[in-house]
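I can't quite decide. Please look over this sequence plus structure tokens:

:::
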Amino acid sequence: METDKKRKIALTLVISFSVLAISFSFYFYQVFFSPNTLVDSDQNYMLKISSNDTYKSVSNKLYDDFVVNDLVSFGFVSRITGYQESVKPGLYTITPKMTNLQLVKLLRSGKQTPIRVTFNNVRTKEDLAEKITANMEISEDQFLTLVKDSVYIRKFDFDEETIMSMFIPNTYELWWNTSSEALFDRMYKEYNAFWTDERKQKAAALGLNQKQVSTLASIVQAESQQKADERPVIAGLYLNRLNIGMPLQADPTLVFASGDFELKRVLNVHKEIESPYNTYKYTGLPPGPINLPDIKSLDAVLDADNNSYLYMCAKEDFSGYHSFASSLAEHNANARRYQAALNKAKIF
């Protein structure tokens, strides 16, 4: 009898232990391998982990935004795998129904999702700061601090007037948490990649360095905002003026000098503005670009049309195109037609 009793106790213990083991194994499996992210959604979630985030702030963000369904199990897996002590900043794509183990592995790996940074139609450093940092962790102020730091930008062989030339408008893949310094390094790398030996040779043949090409391209771009196909012709005209020491007399430089980018009509009073950007008062190129010239504008200068034009005037039909002339008499006739059209349209 006593032997049977012992056997029953032993059997009970074995069964109880087996049940506990099975239960624990099932729970362990559930915790590690059951879906726990976006269980009721079919949309990805972009998790931004900033440089000063902690495990607690990350887990709170995941829970508050209904990304993680069971925060306790996520916390358990995070602790077991050491993620709580190794949070890595960045942008991560969390897909629906990821397991805790998959999610923690992703976050521990630091395998970020790159972002696309696009900037164009830029006039000022403030414009550039706003557009280039729009989808990044760094702030506009952090970027502006560097772009206006004359000592810092000297390492790239630029000054405060020419630094905008370093930024070639395009779309770039970057990490969301790229630092301001790393961003500058990347843009300098892209600048050097753009300036191939062929482009450098074309610039030299025109008697210009790379920064001067950017400055002239910015003027050409401003003069041809509506009709990009005119850019090589306009570039040829301005090169003709530079070659004979004739002032560029480019109205967009007066707009830049005035600081009034809403200015619709340049008047004689604007031609008296005291500024190195006033190309009516000073010959040669201004000290730097008046906007951020795009690649088409840069190449328009490098592949400028070989013409004899010295003058241009907006067409009186307001089509956005220009009337070009080689003589002052021809130009004055074009200008009178345009002025008459402005007066008729009451544009003052």
